[in-house]
Amino acid sequence: MSTVNPYDALLQISEEIGSVHDTAELLDRITDIAMGVLKAERGFMLLKSGNSGFSATTARNISQESISGIQNLSSSVVNQVLENGEPVLTFDAQSDSRFASAESVVIQQIRSIACTPLLRKNEVIGAIYMDSRINTEQFNDESLQFLQAFARQAALAIENARLFEKLQTENRQLKKQISLSTVFDAMVGASPQFRKALAVAAKAARGHGGVLIEGESGTG
User: Fold this and answer.
1) Residue 151 burial class via C-beta count within 10 angstroms: exposed 0-12, middle 13-18, buried 19 and up
2) 99, 106, 145, 177: which is deepest, by most CB within 10 A?
3) φ and ψ at 31, to 5 degrees?
4) Distances (CA, A) of 12 to 34, 57, 119
5) Other CB atoms closer than 10 Å to residue 208's CB: what's the count?
6) pLDDT digits (tens, 9 = 90+) for 119-154
7) CA 69 – CA 107 distance, rounded (Å)
8) What average pLDDT is seen over the chain?
9) What pLDDT score does 206 carry?
């Protein structure tokens, strides 16, 4: 574990919940905080993306190709976490029988791994993955306990940020609708001829008949 106090890190992510409302920025912060505390060599986060499964949202010191290799193999660490909703810790993946058939672990020469799910109630919405190709026993039981507690706070922060962004979008749409409605009402209110034209057009629409609307220039 890092000399950084893990409880300070938990407090930090709790503060992020109230201060960071941009999801992309928040995901970067979550990844950086976790890596800083665990002193991980590499790390990335996965989040559920609709019905298309999980996709990487942030990564540090690891290529997209490497992430795909770790994620896609059925015997991989990440898939076990996503499917079972349980964290995984290995001191030396090279000698861990659980991952003997995981090509990604062998090819990338991964040693220490700590991976935990992001849970919304009992639903897996993603995962935080940390590893080291240099040191065995880079992570220990304390590391995993921290990462689990951290992931609970992170999942809450992500949901709050997404909700905030959704409300912002809905608010912008509502303001646009109100603005258009105000302009339209002003147009109608300013012109008796326009109101008359609308009434005649509505009557014609109900009777499915044609109608000739006459009025002053600029009113229809």
Assistant:
1) buried
2) 99
3) -65, -45
4) 11, 21, 19
5) 6
6) 998 899 999 999 999 888 889 999 999 999 999 999
7) 9
8) 80
9) 66
* Dist CA 75 CA 101 (whole Å): 7
Amino acid identity at 102: A
Burial 32-49 (b: 16+ CB within 10 A, else e): ebbbebbbbbbbbbbbbe
Read off the amino acid at residue 165.
E
Q: pLDDT, tens digit, for every residue of 41-81?
A: 999 999 988 776 888 889 999 887 777 766 654 457 888 89
For residue 151, give both structure tokens.
């992931």
Residue type, 187: M
**3-state DSSP helix/strand/coil percent for the chain, to nearest 5?**
55, 15, 25
* Helix (H), strand (E) at residue 89: strand 88-90
- The owner of tokens 């609709």 is 50
Of the candidates 50, 6, 54, 55, the residue with the CA atom closest to the CA atom of residue 153: 6
Q: Residue 90: exposed, middle, or buried by beta-carbon count in 10 A (0-12, 13-18, 19+)? A: buried
Which is the CATH superfamily of the domain at 6-162?
A: GAF domain (3.30.450.40)
As given in the structure block, the two tokens for residue 192 are 């008796």
Contacts of residue 182, defined as CB under 8 A and 6 or more positions apart, other chains included, come to none
Residues in the chain: 220
d(CA 11, CA 209): 70
